């Protein structure tokens, strides 16, 4: 799994480095550096080809669109992961609280109904079986 | 007390034959009582019997959900083995800026993509019109990339702009102020500072004069004691190291590019993407940046993992 990403990362790093060097040539262009510029342009094309080849290995990877919003705003995409985890934990705790409360309510209801309708509750318990205490 | 099963079961028991004979029963017109009840009102006898067998006298009795089903009552982060990720991202503060995540990327990447129309969302919403394959440029195509000699204007040099990096001021603060200063309101503290400065100025001047006199005396009478300074590396101060780097022709130590220089890494090779036959000045700038270390890589000599 990680090997696929490593290869893509390596290709992307090479590509970015090539673009950086291309930028340096162009920023202060000298006639003698025309051959180097042509070479860099062709490296750029081969770099894009290499990155395109990585696509076949990563077709099963899906990226949430919200991550792109973070990147577009110049924010660290790890913040998205952090917020996702925090949200998941908060929701998890909320649902756990609801489930625990409902279990308590159920046991109390059965307790009180047994006092008032002992025969019917005996039948009910026979069908359902004894519930474990919450 | 009303029976509990009556609450969950049929609310009204069917009228007895005697009651029907006497005219008691559901409030309906006498003529309509003879008509059979609609099929939808009463469940078919077979279904009713099955339900009674399953739930006894209770209606609306359904199967309980299985205990093996995953619900919110379990800690889902531990269930999916995400404690490590949680501790990593939520345990310590994650830096806000994109440049902290991609420190090696050149240019100002912290600016919003909408500024220069370089957002990823626009790339998805409006994909560029191009072919499906990449073909290398031929000689005739490359003639379109003949450039004029000379530097680019300043406003076009986006590649060289790097986000300002914060200096670690913590050490300075510790060395300078040992006693914590009590918090004050900004207006009070400003006034006091100004007054203090005014009061201290003549005293400082006197002290300086005295020091100078002492130094002159020491020089005449014997060797001076070394003045305690902050410890630096073997290269001395940063400015000194930069000057030395400039004299050596080293661009990164001189703080010109912020990149690793040719002197610290292997030289650029002509076949490698960092290489090429270029003028000397540019060749020096094209030092290949060291590849970022990955977990699988062997450790460098003398340097353990961070």
Give a brief outline of the structure.
In chain A, 78% of the residues lie in helices and 1% in strands. By secondary structure, chain A is mainly α. Chain B is flat and about 105 Å long.
Task: Write up this protein.
The complex is a heterodimer of chains A (134) and B (306). Chain A is mainly alpha-helical and 134 residues long. Chain A folds into 2 domains: 1-60; 63-133. In chain A, 78% of the residues lie in helices and 1% in strands. Chain A has helices at 2-27, 34-54, 65-72, 78-116, 118-128; one strand spanning 28-29. The longest helix of chain A has 39 residues, at 78-116. Chain B is mainly alpha-helical. Chain B has 12 helices and 1 strand. Chains A and B meet through helix 1, strand 1, helix 2, helix 3 and helix 4 of A and helix 5, helix 6, helix 7, strand 1 and helix 12 of B. Strand 1 of chain A pairs antiparallel with strand 1 (150-151) of chain B, so a sheet runs across the interface.
* Tally of contiguous helical segments of chain A: 5
Oligomer: heterodimer
Backbone structural class of chain A: mainly alpha
Note the overall shape of chain B: flat
Low-confidence stretches of chain B: 1-43, 173-194, 218-277, 300-306
Could you tell me which chain pair has the largest interface and how many residues each side has? Answer: A-B, 73 and 75 residues
Q: Total helix count of chain B?
A: 12
Mean pLDDT, all residues of chain A: 91
Query: What string, H for helix and E for strand, traces the elements of chain A in order?
Result: HEHHHH
Compressed to H and E, one letter per element, the order of chain B equals: HHHHHHHHEHHHH
Would you tell me the structural class of the helices and strands of chain B? mainly alpha
- The gross shape of chain A turns out to be rod-shaped
Into which percent range does the helicity of residues of chain A fall?
over 70%
| Straight-line N-to-C gap of chain A | 42 Å
- CA-atom Rg of chain B in angstroms: 43 Å
Annotation, overall tally of beta strands of chain A: 1
Strand-residue fraction of chain A?
under 5%
Binned strand content of chain B: under 5%
Biggest beta-sheet profile of chain A? none
Family (chain B): Belongs to the Mediator complex subunit 19 family.
Subcellular location (chain B): Nucleus
Biased composition (Basic residues) (chain B): 164-175, 205-215
Organism (chain B): Strix occidentalis caurina (northern spotted owl)
């Amino acid at each position: 799994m990680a090997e696929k990403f490593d290869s893509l990362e390596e290709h992307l790093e090479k590509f970015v480095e090539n673009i950086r060097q291309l930028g340096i040539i162009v920023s202060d262009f000298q006639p003698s550096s025309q051959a180097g510029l042509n070479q860099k342009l062709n490296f750029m094309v081969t770099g894009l080809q290499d990155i395109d080849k990585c696509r076949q290995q990563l077709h099963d990877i899906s990226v949430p669109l919200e991550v792109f919003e973070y990147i577009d705003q110049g924010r660290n995409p790890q913040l998205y992961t952090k917020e996702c985890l925090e949200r998941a934990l908060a929701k998890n705790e909320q649902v756990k609280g609801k489930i625990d409360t409902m279990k308590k309510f159920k046991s109390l209801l059965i307790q009180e109904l047994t006092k008032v309708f002992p025969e019917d509750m005996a039948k009910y318990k026979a069908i359902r079986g004894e519930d474990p205490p919450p | 007390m009303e029976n509990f099963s009556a609450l969950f079961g049929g609310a009204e028991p069917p009228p007895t034959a005697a009651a029907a004979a006497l005219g008691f029963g559901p409030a309906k017109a006498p003529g309509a009582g003879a008509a059979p009840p609609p099929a939808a009102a009463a469940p078919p006898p077979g279904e009713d019997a099955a339900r009674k067998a399953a739930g006894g006298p209770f209606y609306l009795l359904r199967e309980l959900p299985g205990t093996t089903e995953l619900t919110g009552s379990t800690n889902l982060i531990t269930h999916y083995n995400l404690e490590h990720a949680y501790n990593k991202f939520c345990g310590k503060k994650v830096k806000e800026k994109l440049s902290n995540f991609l420190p090696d990327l050149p240019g100002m990447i912290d600016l919003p993509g909408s500024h220069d129309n370089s957002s990823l969302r626009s790339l998805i919403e409006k994909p560029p019109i191009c072919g499906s394959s990449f073909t290398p440029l031929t000689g005739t195509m490359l003639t379109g990339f003949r450039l004029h000699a000379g530097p680019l204007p300043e406003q076009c040099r986006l590649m060289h702009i790097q986000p300002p990096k914060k200096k670690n001021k913590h050490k300075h603060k510790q060395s300078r102020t040992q006693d914590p200063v009590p918090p004050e309101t900004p207006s009070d503290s400003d006034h006091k500072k100004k007054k203090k400065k005014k009061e201290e100025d003549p005293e400082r001047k006197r002290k300086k004069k005295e020091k100078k006199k002492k130094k002159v005396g020491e020089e005449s009478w014997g060797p001076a004691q070394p003045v305690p300074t902050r410890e630096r590396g073997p290269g001395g101060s940063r400015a000194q190291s930069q000057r030395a780097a400039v004299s050596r022709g080293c661009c990164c130590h001189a703080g010109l590019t912020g990149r690793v220089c040719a002197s610290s890494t292997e030289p650029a090779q002509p076949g490698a993407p960092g290489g090429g036959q270029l003028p000397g000045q540019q060749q020096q700038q094209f030092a290949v940046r060291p590849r970022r270390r990955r977990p699988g890589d062997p450790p460098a000599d003398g340097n353990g993992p961070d």
